[in-house]
Amino acid sequence: MFGFTFDELMGRRMHTLVHHSRPDGTPYPASECPLGEVFRSGNTLNDHRDVFFRKDGTPLFVSISNAPLIKEGHITATVVIVRDATDRERGERELRETNEQLASALATADLGLWSMNLVAGEISWDTRMKALFGLAPEAKVTSEQGRAFIHPDDRSFADGHLARTAHGGKPLGVAGGAQ
After folding, report:
1. pLDDT for the residue 107
2. Angle at CA 80, nearest 5°, toward 79 and 83?
3. What distance in Å separates the CA atoms of residue 82 and residue 132, rounded to the nearest whole number?
4. What is the pTM for the complete model shown?
5. What sections of the chain are H helices per DSSP?
6. What is the number of alpha carbons within 13 Å of residue 145 lying toward its C-beta?
7. What is the Cα gyration radius of the chain?
8. Which of 45, 70, 75, 101 is most enclosed, with most CB atoms within 10 A?
9. Rounded to an integer, what distance in angstroms lies between the CA atom of residue 35 and that of residue 14?
């Protein structure tokens, strides 16, 4: 994962090898490292996200769990599990960027957003959607109320699409109209 051989790791502090810098390149003192705190405090660290560095200097997003090994009431070592979280980090970053773009597009177009859990029959409207229909931001919208906002001539069409979607059919096309 880090590119070191076993011999290169023997007798060396892992912090010095892979956790020496923060993501912005500034030094990361071992005294501030949450992994070292496990050895000092005895508290377990679960799914801590951080950036380590490979032997060649490239960053690696990681998820780390660290637990103390206690012998006769004293911490003698820690067990560290490091998982490569690069794909997860990339996916979460892409999702954040997509959500920011969606929020910007909705704001620019003065549109609201709604979603519906067809199995539970629950509907959720964002604040802007509620405002567009004259509802207070804290208003709870039921499926029946949401349906009432659909033009009467379009209700059977919408009901049919929602029913097919609920039973595994093709979803109702929102951006380009009904499919």
Report:
1. 87
2. 150
3. 48
4. 0.59
5. 6-9, 14-18, 34-41, 86-109, 127-132, 143-148, 155-166
6. 13
7. 26
8. 45
9. 10
Indicate the burial class of 66 (C-beta count within 10 angstroms; 0-12, 13-18, 19 or more): buried
Domains of the chain, CATH where assigned: 6-88 (3.30.450.20), 112-170 (3.30.450.20)
| Amino acid at site 26 | T
As given in the structure block, the two tokens for residue 150 are 């659909």
pLDDT at 178: 36
Position 56, amino acid: D
User: Would you state the pLDDT for residue 174?
Assistant: 46
* Residue 83, token pair as written in the block: 């998982």
Q: 103 phi and psi, to 5 degrees?
A: -60, -40
Q: What is the mean pLDDT of each run of 10 residues along the chain (179 residues)?
A: 91 91 91 89 93 93 94 92 93 95 90 83 88 92 85 89 73 43
Q: Which amino acid is at 149?
A: F
